[in-house]
Design a protein that fits this description.
274 residues, globular, Rossmann fold
Length: 274
């Protein structure tokens, strides 16, 4: 097998639960870089939310961010591809009724903007553990998010709706399906509804990248753990779900790798590439 590209989600996949990258995984990535195998982080995070330890990994030249809505060059942060939501789509979304216990954020040019109340109390909206500090560190608060979104609606890569209450998420998801065409809806963690352009998901953007670089499906492998990773796992011949992945993600995968805390990505790379 001649693997030319490895794509991987970050949280719950490449990262351990402590949001680190193990020494074994780093050594493995160094070895595939020496063999000129491309390594592409592929994440739901906005570009600015990706830690330096990822940007400086061996062999990382590009990163797919915002669930496939944009591609950035790792070394200098230049945006090389993007698929923003249309202004009509944003108008339709903002016209939908919002419950008081739901908030949202917008991702623009690699940054995340949200209501200050979400930053002040992420747990109120379902954030737990690492998520609480992560939101406080990586989000920019704005006084009136609806007005801000209106003013920047030609630049929005993704809108993310957040609620701790399942019934609110289900209701809003149904409203999006009925009243807003040409969107992609996914979820990386249970309290999020992540909305992007219909042509922007991890799999479609990875597929475009592979086509531009002359890489076939059977020359690529990918790793993920959640619903937003499924399109990526099915865009390549060798799509691996982590042992800690959702059942839906495992069902879509070529095979299951060991969990993120047990160097699952590194072990499969060694098996198939080294």
């Amino acid at each position: 097998m001649g693997i030319k590209l490895v794509a991987s989600d970050l949280d719950g996949t490449l990262f351990t639960d402590e949001k680190t990258i193990s020494d074994e995984t780093r050594r493995t990535l160094e070895e595939i870089a020496e063999k000129r195998i491309l390594f592409i982080p592929c994440t739901g995070r906005a570009f600015a939310s990706i830690p330096e330890l990822v940007r400086t990994l061996p062999g990382v030249q590009y990163m797919i961010v915002s669930n496939g809505s944009a591609v950035y060059r790792a070394e200098d942060g230049v945006r090389v591809y993007g698929s923003t939501l249309s202004t009509d789509t944003i108008d339709r979304i903002l016209s939908l009724p919002f419950h008081e216990e739901m908030t949202f954020e917008v991702q623009i040019q690699g940054e995340s903007y949200t209501e200050q109340r979400y930053i002040d109390d992420p747990a109120r909206f379902g954030a737990t553990g690492f998520g609480v500090s992560y939101i406080r560190k990586t989000r920019h608060g704005v006084a009136d998010l609806r007005v801000f979104a209106e003013e920047h609606k030609t630049e929005i890569d993704e809108m993310i709706f957040v609620s701790a209450r399942k019934e609110q998420r289900v209701s809003f998801h149904e409203a999006l399906l009925h009243f807003v065409p040409d969107i992609r809806i996914t979820s990386s963690v249970p309290n999020l509804i992540e909305v992007g352009h219909v042509d922007a998901d991890k799999g479609k953007t990875l597929g475009r990248f592979m086509q531009m670089n002359g890489i076939a499906m059977d020359e690529a492998m990918a790793f993920g753990d959640a619903g937003n990773d499924i399109s990526m796992l099915t865009a390549v011949r060798y799509g691996f779900a982590m042992a800690n992945a959702t059942d839906e993600c495992k069902a879509a995968a070529y095979a299951v790798a060991e969990e993120n805390n047990a160097d699952g990505v590194a072990k499969m790379i060694r098996k198939y590439c080294l």
